[in-house]
Amino acid sequence: MKRLLSVLLALAMVWGLTVPALAAASETAVPAEGQAVDGAAPTPGVDPVPEEEAPSEQTELEAELTDLILRVKTTLEVDNGYSDLTSDYYDGVMPQWSLTWTDDDRQMSAQVRQDGTILNADYWQNSDDRDSFYGFDPVFPPLSEDEAREMAQEWLDKLFVGEESGRIDDVYTGMGRDGYYRFTGGVEKNGLPSPVTFNLIVNSDGLSSFYRSDCYGGYVGQLPAAEPAADEAAGAKGLASAVKMELYYVSDEEGGAALRYVPVGPYAVVDAQSGETVDMDALYASVGGGSMANGLYGKGAEPMAEEAMSDAGAYITEAEQQSIGQYGDVLDGSALDKELRKLTALGLDVFQLQRCSYAMDPDGKTITASLRYVTTMTAEQLYGFTAEGFRQTEEAGGDLTVYKSLTVNAKTGRLLSVSTAYPLYERDEAVVMTDTNRTRAAENFLSLAAPELAEQADICTLSDYNEDDMVTFAQVHEGYFFPENSASVTVNPSSGTVDSYYLDWDEDVRFGPADQVVKQAAAEKAYADALDVTLGYVAWPLDITLEENAAYADLLAQGYTYVEELRLAWYYEGKDAVSGVDAVTGKAILAEEEDEQSYTYDDLDGVDQAEQIQALAEAGIGFAGGQFQPEAELTGRDGLRLLLQAAGQTVDQWDDDTLTDMAARQGLMLGDEDFDLDGTLTRMAFIKMLLTPSRYGDAAELLSVTADRGYSVIALALGMDVSEPDGTATRADAAAMLYAFMAR
């Protein structure tokens, strides 16, 4: 904004316009709400809850939540001005809380373990009060990379404590007026690398987002000491013994093929204590049939002293107390369990409740509970699996636990979903249920679980629905299915109990018109026309249970039923890029593709604009092929390419029609329907392409009483070289002008 003011002032001086004295007012600091004025103490956004109003006694969940809220607010510098807080509790091997603070124009969320370790944090700020220009407006981020790196490290020092530290490996620059920097790296434990990684985003406002790769899992047990018994030489010898290589041709960077040795074989490590070389692939394969329980590796963060939280100014606000109070009337696990067992179709009579977790909806009023039940499969109750599979698993000492997970409204006990996980895979084909009985059982269950929705639904007859044991009901509107509003039920053919129940229903959905739709044949043609037909090799499944494929007997004995081979075939290229056809317009709906691109060049030595060219390249603006060709004359195609990339588009794979179509939408071709992609551009032509669709376009046109003087004045004020405006521009000229525009 300051640069914009300077440009307007420059215009005023050149044209003798009278400009009100706005600068002084714009530079006057206005304290934000709660900010100190003239050295006075800051005023909190929300007054603390009077001590006498605090609850005299809290449940265990409320006390734990209170402690974590204070710790998270201190670490993440969450102020006391938020109006609402929702809090979700996830039970498991390593329980954790999800906290979300909200206000009218901002939101702060954090996922935190019970020991205070912050796993995930996100901050969102409504941008309605910021600059509202939505035209062509690319700028470099207001924060330099060095400043962002320093800020990121300060946050890492707060987020990783004790045995952990964050190591920055890479940085990505997000362009735009609200630009950001994304730092990625590894989490070191006791100064050594670990499998845990992180992603941290900062902008000029501070921390925007943080994420650890062990956000939804972790590692159990105590962290071993950093001192190895097997030394480096022993480790090197063990790893070398596991190396295997093959010799064959590999495509090289020049488009040919080079003969190379390529490493193959298992992923191996050497145990630092025993010195044993371990084949990790084989180790994982040996436990592949089991289930993995994730938890935290190490002791986690040390508890934060109460005085530290007090010094940081953190306290429980009224909104936070209200959120905590929402857990005062939830039904506990035993009460919910009692209600659920009344639904005999769930078959819970042989199950035991293992754990109960809670989740709060953003409205702060609805809390759901997730209950996990367990039982052990017996020879008398195989749930439709084979007796032989049961016998083999039992003799091998395998896990025979059956898990059933239910989600309910934590305050009313209403059932929302059911899922069941069995320990065996081979079904007994003799145990079946007729379609009629399955459908009748599913209808009866739905009428009990969601009677008001069952009246609006019917069994979905669309493709890929109700082809297996699951019965899916979808909402019907004006004679058409709306499968996104659906309820699905699976009934076990042996026990007759419900194995799964999924309800996904938005009662507030608004339906569009159902008449005047295009014909099916026209839609099919539009879909086909949007795809590219390609000849190539595709994977083809080969059934190895057939006698003619006896050569694969070893694989069959291992439990595999098919392998894949390659066959030559025609296929649609990029089929996922077309999600469907608009039934009203008849146009294919193309999926948006995202591709981060940066460029490197080997022809910038001695080029005056090398620094600007490289800065654009790091932002994904430039030319592929390893050379920028700075002295090459700037073509229309080159100019559009650079400007579209600055606008956030990825143009490398675009054809000319796509390029010009997108440029026209951005207003970059100045309304010229006969724009020449191969023709050269003058410096002034590129300046006008750059400024016209921007916030300066109207002013430049208004002031161009004589030729293009308005454009020259604004370009000069922005730091561009406006000499020889009618001369042919080079690629280097265009890069310098675009850089000056984006650096304003």
Q: Could you state the oligomeric state of the chains shown?
A: single chain
Total helical segments: 21
Distance between the termini: 9 Å
Structural class: alpha+beta
**Would you identify the regions where 5 or more consecutive residues have pLDDT less than 50?**
1-52, 288-301
How are the strands ordered across the major sheet?
A: 1-2-3-4-8-7-6-5
Main sheet summary: 8 strands, antiparallel
Shape by Cα distribution: globular
Assess the beta-strand content as a share of residues. Answer: 15-25%
* Amount of helix: 25-40%
Q: What Rg do the Cα atoms give?
A: 32 Å
Total strands: the figure is 24
Mean pLDDT metric: 79
Task: Give me a quick take on this structure.
The chain has 744 residues and is an alpha+beta fold. Strands 1-2-3-4-8-7-6-5 form an eight-stranded antiparallel β-sheet. Strands 13-14-15-16-20-19-18-17 form an eight-stranded antiparallel β-sheet. A two-stranded antiparallel ribbon has the order 9-10.
